[in-house]
C-alpha cells in the first residue's frame, strides 16, 4: 500500500512539474538593437513580474501550461504585449523590440507633485522634459541648464547683466524670484543663492526636468508663486555607465564633462565632473564683453545604500566654483589704460550636501526624509564698488505617504533656515537677513473613478516675524475619453521680502537698502485651466494642448528712491496681474517630428501710472521646431523662435525679432559627433541699439531684451561606454 501511495505521489509531483514552464525574454531598442536594462516584464493578470538585467534578459519561471500574455514596459518607449503558448515556447528566448514614444511623455513617471504617478494620471499639470531633449540641449550649452528651457512655452530665460551674462528664469511673465528651483526635490536656490543658480547646474547628469506652471507654494512653500522647476538627476543602473563630452565654440567656450555611474547589490553611485573655460568675447567691437572671461568647475558625487528591500539611503555633495570677469577688454587683460578701466568680477562658490532616506513601511505606506545644507559664497567687484556675502541654507522635509482605498494621502513637516551675512569689510551698511520657516502640509490625491481625479492640499507656514501663511490648493483631472482630457488648478502663494531680485542684481545691489520691518510678504492667488487632445491618423500622431493662466500678486515689492543715491523696497497698494494662454501642437510621423508653441502674456502692474505693462515681457512668443531622427543613428533639427516687441523700463519699445538654429548629431556606435549653429542669422541687441549708452570709463548699460552675443557655432564629441 505504501508503495502504491509513493508511486501516486511521485506521479502527481512529476505531472505538476511538467506543467510549470519558463519564459525567457530579450528586450531591445527596436531601431538601434541596444539591450534595455531595467525594462519591466509582467505576466498579465498576475503580480508575477521581473526586470531585465544588464544584458537585456528577463526570465519568469513557474508558468502554467496554456496561452499567456506578457506585458513589457520601459521609460520612454511604447509598451508591448506578447502572447506565448506553453509548453511550445518553454525555455525559448523571445526577442521583443520596443519602439520609442517620441515626444509622447504621458507615461513618464513624475514626482514633483510629491506623488509618483504618470503625467497622464496626475491632476496637477506637470510638463516633463525627457532625456533625449536634455541631451540635445546639452550639446548646445554643456556648461549650464539655460538652453534646456529655451523652447518651453511660457518660460523665459532673462539675462540680467550686459557684461557678465547672469540670468534668471521667468515663468508666465513674472520675475525670476517667483520661480522655485529644485534639484532632486531639494529647495536650496533662493534669495542670494539664486543669483547664479541656472549657471551653476550642468545638464550632463540630468535624467528629467519637471515643470509646474502656476501656484505651487502648497507643495514647496514660499517663493513658488509662478511655478516650480525640478531638475532630476540620473539614477545608477546595474550596467556601469561612462559618458564623456568635449565641446568647443566660436565664441571661445571650451567644455569638458564626465559622468559615471554603477550599481551593486548593496550600493550604487553616480559622479559628475565638469570644467568650463570661456574666453572674453566682444562681437560688436565696442570693447565691452558680451560673454565674460569665465573659468568654472563642478564636482558632484552621489552614493546610494540599499539597506534592504524596502529602504534606501542616498548622500550627495555638489561643489561648484565660478570666476567670471566681464567689462572693458583692456581692464580684463589688466592693461594699464586710464581710459579703459571698467570691469565686473563675479567670484562664487557653492557647496550643497543632501541626504535622503526612503522606506516602504508597508504595501501602502512610505516614509521619505530629506535633509540638505548649502553654502553660497559670492563676491562682486566693480572699479569703485564691491559687494560680498555668504548665504547659508538648511532644508528639512519629512513626509509620509499613505494609500487608503482610492486615496493617496501625504502629510509632512518642512523646516527651512535661511541666513545671509554680508561682508562687513567692504564699507557697505550690512544687509544681513535671517529667516526660519516651519511648515505643515497635507495633500490628498483621490481617484474618484477612471475618468475623474482630484489632488487637493493645504499648507500652513510660520514664516518667522511674518507670521502664519495659509496656502490651500486644488487640482482636478477629467478624462472625457481616450482622446480628450482637461485639468484645472488653483491655489494661493506668498513670498517673503528680499533684496535679491532681477532688478537689484542688475545694480550689483549698489545703493539698495536692506529689508526692514515696514515690508510685508507678497501674497498671490492664481490658477490654470488646460485641455489636451491626442489622436492618430494612420502613422501620424497628433497631440495638442491649450492652457490658460492667471496670477495676481498683492502687496508686490517695488524698488523706490529713498534719497539721491539710495533705493529701498516698499509694498505697493495695487497688485501685479499676469494672464494669458499657451498653445502647444505636436505632430509625429516617424522619423519626422514637428512642434509648434505659442505664448500670449499680458503682465501689468496696477500701481504704475500711464502704461502699466511690466518691462521685458513680450506679449507674443512663437516656437517652431522640425526634427528628423533615427534613434541610435542620426538627428537633424531646425528651430525658429519669434519674440514680439517688449516694453522697457524707460517706456521705450524694443524691436521684435526672429532667431533660427540648426543642429545635427551622428552616432557611430559608442561615439557621437554633433554640430550646432545657434542664432545663425546673427540677431543681437547691438544691431538695433547701443548696449552701452555711456562712456568707456563710466558705461551705462541698457536693459537686455535679446541676445547680446549673436551667432554661436559649436561642435563636439560624446563617448558613451
Q: In total, how many beta strands? A: 39
Total domain modules: 3
Question: What's the mean pLDDT score?
Answer: 88
CATH overall fold name of the largest domain: Maltoporin, Chain A
Which term fits the overall shape?
A: globular
Give the CATH H-level superfamily of the largest domain: TonB-dependent receptor, beta-barrel domain
* Tally of DSSP helical segments: 5
Instruction: Quickly give the structural class.
Output: mainly beta
Roughly how many Å apart are the termini? 66 Å
Instruction: List the uncertain runs.
Output: 1-18
Query: What radius of gyration results from the CA coordinates?
Result: 28 Å
| Proportion of residues in β-strands | over 45%
Q: Architecture of the largest domain, according to CATH?
A: Beta Barrel
Q: Would you give an account of this structure?
A:
The chain has a 22-stranded antiparallel β-barrel. The chain has a 4-stranded antiparallel beta sheet with strand order 3-2-5-6, with no helix packed on it. Strands 10-14-15-13 form a 4-stranded mixed beta sheet. A hairpin with a 6-residue loop joins strand 8 (109-110) and strand 9. The relative contact order is 0.11. It is 5% helix and 54% strand. It is built from 5 helices and 39 strands. It is globular and about 90 Å long. The protein folds into 3 domains: 2-98, Immunoglobulins (Immunoglobulin-like, Sandwich), CATH 2.60.40.10; 109-231, TonB-dependent receptor, plug domain (Ferric Hydroxamate Uptake Protein, Chain A, domain 1), CATH 2.170.130.10; 232-720, TonB-dependent receptor, beta-barrel domain (Maltoporin, Chain A). With 721 residues, it is mainly β.
Amino acid at each position: 500500500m505504501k508503495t502504491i501511495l509513493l508511486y501516486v505521489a511521485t506521479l502527481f509531483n512529476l505531472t505538476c512539474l511538467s506543467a510549470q514552464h519558463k519564459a525567457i525574454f530579450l528586450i531591445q531598442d527596436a531601431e538601434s538593437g541596444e539591450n534595455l536594462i531595467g525594462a519591466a516584464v509582467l505576466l498579465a493578470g498576475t503580480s508575477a513580474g521581473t526586470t531585465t538585467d544588464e544584458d537585456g534578459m528577463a526570465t519568469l519561471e513557474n508558468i502554467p501550461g496554456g496561452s499567456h500574455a506578457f506585458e513589457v514596459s520601459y521609460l520612454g518607449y511604447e509598451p508591448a504585449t506578447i502572447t506565448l503558448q506553453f509548453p511550445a515556447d518553454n525555455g525559448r528566448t523571445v526577442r521583443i523590440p520596443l519602439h520609442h514614444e517620441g515626444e509622447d511623455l504621458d507615461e513618464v513617471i513624475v514626482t514633483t507633485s510629491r506623488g509618483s504617478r504618470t503625467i497622464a494620471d496626475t491632476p496637477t499639470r506637470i510638463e516633463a522634459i525627457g532625456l533625449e531633449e536634455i541631451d540635445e540641449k546639452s550639446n548646445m550649452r554643456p556648461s549650464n541648464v539655460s538652453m534646456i528651457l529655451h523652447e518651453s512655452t511660457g518660460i523665459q530665460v532673462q539675462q540680467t547683466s550686459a557684461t557678465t551674462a547672469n540670468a534668471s528664469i521667468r515663468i508666465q511673465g513674472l520675475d525670476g524670484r517667483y520661480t522655485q528651483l529644485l534639484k532632486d526635490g531639494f529647495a536650496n536656490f533662493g534669495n542670494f543663492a539664486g543669483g547664479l543658480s541656472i549657471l551653476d547646474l550642468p545638464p550632463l547628469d540630468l535624467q528629467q526636468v519637471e515643470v509646474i506652471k502656476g501656484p505651487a507654494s502648497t507643495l514647496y512653500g514660499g517663493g513658488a508663486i509662478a511655478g516650480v522647476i525640478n531638475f532630476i538627476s540620473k539614477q545608477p543602473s546595474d550596467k556601469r555607465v561612462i559618458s564623456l563630452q568635449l565641446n568647443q565654440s566660436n565664441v571661445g567656450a571650451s567644455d569638458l564633462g564626465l559622468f559615471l555611474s554603477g550599481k551593486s547589490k548593496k550600493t550604487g553611485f553616480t559622479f559628475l565632473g565638469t570644467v568650463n573655460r570661456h574666453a572674453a568675447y566682444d562681437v560688436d567691437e565696442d570693447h565691452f564683453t558680451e560673454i565674460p572671461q569665465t573659468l568654472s568647475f563642478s564636482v558632484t558625487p552621489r552614493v546610494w545604500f540599499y539597506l534592504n528591500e524596502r529602504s534606501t539611503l542616498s548622500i550627495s555633495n555638489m561643489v561648484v566654483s565660478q570666476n567670471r570677469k566681464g567689462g572693458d577688454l583692456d581692464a580684463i587683460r589688466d592693461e594699464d589704460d586710464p581710459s579703459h578701466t571698467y570691469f565686473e568680477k563675479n567670484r562664487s562658490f557653492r557647496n550643497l550636501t543632501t541626504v535622503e532616506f526612503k522606506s516602504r513601511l508597508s504595501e501602502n505606506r512610505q516614509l521619505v526624509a530629506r535633509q540638505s545644507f548649502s553654502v553660497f559664497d559670492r563676491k562682486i567687484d566693480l572699479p569703485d564698488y564691491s559687494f560680498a556675502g555668504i548665504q547659508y541654507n538648511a532644508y528639512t522635509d519629512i513626509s509620509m505617504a499613505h494609500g487608503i482605498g482610492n486615496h493617496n494621502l501625504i502629510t509632512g513637516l518642512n523646516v527651512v533656515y535661511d541666513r545671509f551675512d554680508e561682508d562687513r569689510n567692504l564699507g557697505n551698511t550690512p544687509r544681513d537677513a535671517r529667516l526660519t520657516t516651519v511648515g505643515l502640509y497635507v495633500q490628498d490625491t483621490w481617484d474618484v473613478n477612471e475618468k475623474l481625479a482630484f489632488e487637493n492640499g493645504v499648507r500652513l507656514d510660520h514664516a518667522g516675524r511674518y507670521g502664519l501663511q495659509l496656502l490651500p490648493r486644488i487640482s482636478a483631472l477629467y478624462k472625457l475619453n481616450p482622446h480628450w482630457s482637461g485639468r484645472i488648478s488653483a491655489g494661493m502663494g506668498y513670498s517673503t521680502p528680499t533684496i535679491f531680485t532681477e532688478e537689484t542684481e542688475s545694480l550689483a545691489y549698489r545703493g539698495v537698502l536692506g529689508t526692514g520691518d515696514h515690508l510685508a510678504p507678497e501674497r498671490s492667488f492664481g490658477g490654470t485651466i488646460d485641455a489636451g487632445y491626442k489622436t492618430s491618423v494612420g502613422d501620424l500622431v497628433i497631440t495638442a494642448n491649450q492652457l490658460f493662466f492667471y496670477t495676481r500678486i498683492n502687496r508686490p515689492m517695488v524698488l523706490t528712491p529713498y534719497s539721491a543715491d539710495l533705493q529701498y523696497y516698499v509694498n505697493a497698494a495695487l497688485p501685479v496681474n499676469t494672464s494669458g494662454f499657451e498653445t502647444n501642437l505636436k505632430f509625429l510621423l516617424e522619423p519626422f517630428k514637428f512642434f509648434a508653441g505659442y505664448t500670449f502674456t499680458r503682465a501689468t502692474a496696477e500701481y504704475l501710472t500711464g502704461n502699466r505693462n511690466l518691462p521685458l515681457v513680450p506679449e507674443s512668443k512663437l516656437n517652431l521646431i522640425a526634427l528628423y531622427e533615427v534613434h541610435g543613428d542620426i538627428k537633424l533639427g531646425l528651430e525658429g523662435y519669434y519674440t514680439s516687441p517688449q516694453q522697457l523700463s524707460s517706456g521705450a519699445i524694443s524691436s521684435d525679432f526672429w532667431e533660427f538654429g540648426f543642429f545635427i548629431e551622428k552616432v557611430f556606435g559608442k561615439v557621437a559627433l554633433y554640430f550646432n549653429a545657434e542664432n545663425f542669422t546673427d540677431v543681437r541687441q547691438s544691431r538695433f541699439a547701443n548696449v552701452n549708452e555711456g562712456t568707456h570709463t563710466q558705461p551705462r548699460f541698457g536693459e537686455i531684451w535679446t541676445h547680446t552675443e549673436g551667432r554661436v557655432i559649436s561642435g563636439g564629441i560624446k563617448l558613451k561606454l
